[in-house]
Amino acid sequence: MVSTPWDAHTYDRTSGPQQAWATEVLARLEGITQDATVLDVGCGTGRVTEALLELVPSGRVLAIDASADMVGLARTRLGERAQVFCQDALDLDLDEPVDAIVSTAALHWVRDHERLWSRLARALRPGGVLEIQCGGEGNIDGVREVIDAVASDGAPELVGFSPWVFAGPAETEGRLHAAGFTATRCWLEERPTYPQDVDAFVRTSILAAHLERLPEERREPFAAAVVAGVRLPLDYVRLNVSAVRCPTRGRWAVGHGTV
């Protein structure tokens, strides 16, 4: 994932839209057994991880995030109820495979989707399920136009820069099949979004990586100009992914990448 210093406390306070989307993803795990082992990839501050605990009361929940600040807040929230690690999704390496992987509002920050799905396949047992939602093709197009316009007017470091991969369903299905997934279903869903605190939401959920690339004295003017230029609703588009790791492909082999 993009290595970005997140404002975890502000994200936790303003991430209502992300939590609403996550509720729909967790509903797709309705048939999971109560003693399953589940991995939350890109757990953020642990709110979704906490909801996962209710689905597997006699099971085990693991969680990873690339941000040390996010992980710190998640560990405070979850205590000993879940195991939370600071780890990039592209470096994911578990001692044992899990029964299900969930990720919400995170994987568009991973720059290499070819490697991503293979890593997730390695972490799943044969027959394990994958339920994902992240930014998809067309996500925040209007907001990105504003960002590009502000960048071209005084932030040359940001011209042509994007920290995201907003993939479409067809290319994602191809990557899933190549990684060893079956029963794949990928679809886009428009989710017009009205954050309660637009200023904090845009700065924290959208601009974190952009602001990191700017000198500190130029961050506030840039962020203020982008916030002033965006219009509600924010034009979010979500890529949903449901898949099963092929029960007959390869075997689990720690450290060898065998799937």
Concise synopsis of the structure shown:
With 259 residues, the chain is of the alpha/beta class. The protein is built from 10 helices and 7 strands.
Explain how this protein is built.
- This protein is an alpha/beta fold and 259 residues long.
- It has helices spanning 8-14, 16-27, 47-55, 68-78, 113-123, 141-152, 169-179, 198-206, 208-212, 216-229, and strands at 37-41, 60-65, 83-86, 98-104, 124-135, 181-193, 234-245.
- It has a seven-stranded mixed β-sheet, sandwiched between helices.
- Helix 8 packs across helix 10 (216-229).
- It is globular.
- It starts with 7 loop residues before the first helix and ends in a 14-residue tail after the last strand.
- The model is unreliable at 250-259 (pLDDT under 50).
Helix fraction bin = 25-40%
Strand order of the largest sheet: 3-2-1-4-5-7-6
Count of extended strands: 7
What shape does the CA trace take? globular
Task: Please describe the topology of this protein.
Elements lengths: L7 H7 L1 H12 L9 E5 L5 H9 L4 E6 L2 H11 L4 E4 L11 E7 L8 H11 E12 L5 H12 L16 H11 L1 E13 L4 H9 L1 H5 L3 H14 L4 E12 L14
Parallel strand pairs: 1-2, 1-4, 2-3, 4-5
Antiparallel strand pairs: 5-7, 6-7
Key features of this structure:
23% strand, disordered C terminus, alpha/beta, 259 residues, 7-stranded mixed beta sheet, 10 helices
